[in-house]
Amino acid sequence: MTVLEHQACLLLGSNILPEKNLTLGLNLLRNMATISRLSSVWETPSVGSSGPDFLNLAVLITTQLKASELKAQVLRPLEKQLGRVRSANKNAPRTFDIDIILFDGQLLDPNLWVYAHRAVPVAEILPDYRSDQGKLLKEVAHGLAEMNPIRLKRDVLVDSHILHQHTNRRSNAREF
Questions:
Q1: In whole angstroms, how far apart are CA 91 and each of 50, 60, 99, 129, 152?
Q2: Which of 22, 72, 77, 85 is most buried, by the most CB atoms less than 10 A from its CB?
């Protein structure tokens, strides 16, 4: 029986002890999926609330799980393990947030084209991804970064053993 491998692009974020929680989240994720690419860490103001700034990064993984299984069996339990409390306020501060942005090349989160905190990290690892209208993600991310506050956090390092190319990726990160 052939086992299908799926590729998923995830966006990880935190605005409660974000350096600690992003590193912990990546370490836990590494035990549940194969991480093939990792973006730099980016800082943005909270969207929809006056909470602390967020740190975000994008991760490209391979998994044998379908998108719904990945969300239910890996991502939600991971958020809960790191202290994520879901409330009626979808913009509340959080210890850890992880969303599926793309799954097998299919866009699952249309906000990728709207928010710099989504577009910029994902564009770093998938710059040539195109919208249905043919727009390149790297170009959209550049435009969003010019209009919205977003800052590369060179001082935030995730554990280098998560991805053996970690130090090379970080030194090659582009400012948007």
A1: 9, 24, 14, 27, 22
A2: 22
